[in-house]
Amino acid sequence: MKIAVFGTGTVGRTLAAAFSSLGHEVVVGTRDPADTARRTEAGPMGGQPFKEWQAAHEGVRLETFAAAAEVSDLVVNATNGAASLEALAAAGAANLAGKVLLDVSNPLDFSQGMPPVLNPVNTESLGERIQRSFPDAKVVKALNTMNAGLMVDPGRLAGGDHSVFVSGDDSEAKARVTGLLQELGHRDIIDLGDIASARGAEMVLPLWLRLFGVLGTPDFNFKVVRGG
Question: Does this model's pTM top 0.90?
Answer without folding.
Answer: yes
